[in-house]
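F.,

This is the one I mentioned.
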């Protein structure tokens, strides 16, 4: 039962040993002054030892963090990874296996939607989209198409919330023939979407002049049949403005022309492909508020919401926890909630991206250790021995910021790029010491981060179940919730499409 699961998750997150993983950052672990908590003793020494390759015929698994991930995913490994014999896991401390087993049992399944269950049109337009954006838009289009086909109300009106450049909005209009209102808070995004609309119109005109023959990579779409409509509006989106702008749009005679009169309120579907931060909650509050109205003269009513929640770190403080106030979610909890270890190896290429992401986390933490030993503290200006105790401070250095993937080709190149970007000169003897790259500490950092990511999945499960609990209390009626995991191509160690939530 959902109530029992959220009780167990809340108790698990309150455990002092679990909370430590959210209190401590990998950069802190790498510092010379760091002392591992006693609660980590059972894995700290183990993580610093090389993996015993002689006990395993699985050449794919070469590090301790990979072994932990393999144990976590052992019941649902991708087909391309050979299943290891159980003996390989005996090397993992039993306490660590128990922690991972508990975490896996509490996490909401993140199985992605099979391609054959999505009604993705055979003909589609992806002009101007990056491969990632095209993948997201096509899968969301297919999901919405399948949702509408299985719905008794068959909604034909959609509000695309946070539409950006309106790629999804145009797909819903052109491929599914829907009436779409594209909302965004940015004038720049709205104007950019309008410019792309004009470009598409010119392409369509050229297409008609060639009697529907494909030209310039464009394919005849539903827009040629004038099936759907698309309107743009720029607003600051919150629960109240979402209802107001939908109401204005639905009172437009052009929009209502396809609605049969005297058949009750027009069904509306709210969609958000990237509902960053509290936008998800704003949509749910608008959804619940509209359904709670008893006015029989309502001209429209939301019958579903397809929301891809993301960027939990941007949640307003009051939106971090809605119902279970016995759990406190810190910024570290919210950052880790976006982790998706279930999707780290959906393909060999995806796993290489994961390995790179793991390297970035470990090496940037090791760089903090190097900086701690290389940057000489400075005395306060005008301080002399006769003045008594003098304050000591670390010279300010520039932030490392983001580096391109090529900077992580090898340790020496990474350090060189860091020196260049931060404007510092690092001591060679500190870089080559036992506390840096290739050391026991690097392995411990990797194991620590994998454990944080596994536990982060539980945080997202808590957030979603807490919202479900809140919505049930608000509506006081039964409704269907469908959780769907992210697609592997959209997820990595630091970025993910979160579970699609369908309320209706």
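My design for it:
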């Amino acid at each position: 039962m959902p109530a029992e699961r959220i009780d167990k998750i809340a108790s698990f997150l309150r455990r002092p040993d679990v909370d430590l993983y959210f209190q401590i950052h990998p950069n802190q672990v790498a510092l010379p002054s760091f002392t591992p908590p006693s609660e980590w003793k059972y894995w700290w020494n183990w993580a610093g030892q090389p993996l015993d390759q002689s006990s395993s015929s699985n050449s794919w698994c070469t590090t301790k963090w990979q072994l932990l991930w393999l144990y976590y995913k052992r019941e649902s490994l991708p087909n391309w990874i050979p299943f290891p014999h159980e003996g390989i896991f005996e090397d993992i401390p039993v306490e660590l296996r128990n922690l991972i087993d508990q975490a896996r049992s509490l996490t909401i399944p993140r199985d992605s939607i099979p391609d054959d269950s999505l009604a993705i049109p055979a003909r589609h337009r992806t002009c101007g989209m990056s491969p990632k954006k095209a993948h997201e838009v096509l899968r969301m289009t297919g999901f919405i198409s399948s949702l509408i086909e299985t719905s008794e109300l068959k909604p034909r009106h959609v509000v695309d919330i946070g539409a950006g450049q309106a790629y999804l909005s145009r797909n819903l209009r052109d491929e599914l023939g829907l009436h779409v209102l594209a909302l965004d808070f940015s004038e720049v995004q709205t104007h950019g979407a309008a410019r792309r609309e004009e470009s598409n119109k010119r392409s369509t005109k050229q297409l008609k002049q060639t009697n529907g023959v494909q030209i310039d990579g464009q394919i005849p779409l539903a827009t040629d049949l004038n099936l759907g409509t698309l309107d743009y509006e720029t607003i600051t989106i919150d629960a109240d403005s979402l209802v107001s702008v939908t109401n204005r749009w639905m009172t437009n005679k052009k929009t209502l022309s396809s609605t049969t009169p005297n058949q009750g309120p027009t069904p509306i579907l709210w969609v958000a492909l990237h509902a960053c931060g509290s936008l998800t909650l704003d949509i749910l509050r608008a959804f619940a508020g509209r359904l709670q109205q008893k006015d029989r003269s309502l001209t429209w009513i939301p019958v579903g919401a397809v929301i891809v929640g993301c960027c939990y770190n941007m949640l307003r403080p009051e939106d971090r926890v809605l119902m279970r106030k016995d759990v406190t979610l810190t910024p570290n909890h919210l950052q880790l909630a976006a982790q998706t270890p279930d999707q780290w190896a959906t393909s060999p290429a995806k796993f290489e991206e994961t390995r790179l992401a793991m390297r970035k986390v470990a090496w940037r933490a090791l760089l903090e250790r190097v900086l701690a030993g290389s940057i000489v503290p400075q005395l306060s200006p005008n301080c002399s021995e006769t003045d008594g105790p003098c304050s000591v401070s670390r010279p300010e250095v520039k932030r490392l910021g983001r580096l391109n993937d090529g900077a992580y080709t090898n340790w020496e190149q990474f350090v060189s790029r860091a020196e260049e970007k931060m404007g510092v000169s690092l001591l060679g003897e500190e870089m080559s010491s036992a506390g840096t790259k290739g050391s026991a500490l690097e392995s411990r950092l990797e194991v620590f981060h994998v454990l944080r990511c596994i536990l982060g999945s539980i945080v997202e499960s808590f957030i979603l179940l807490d919202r479900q609990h809140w919505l049930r209390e608000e509506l006081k009626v039964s409704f269907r919730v469908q959780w769907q995991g992210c697609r592997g191509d959209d997820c990595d160690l630091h970025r993910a499409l979160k579970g699609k939530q369908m309320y209706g």
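Residues 115-339 form a domain with the Rossmann fold fold (CATH 3.40.50).

Talk soon.
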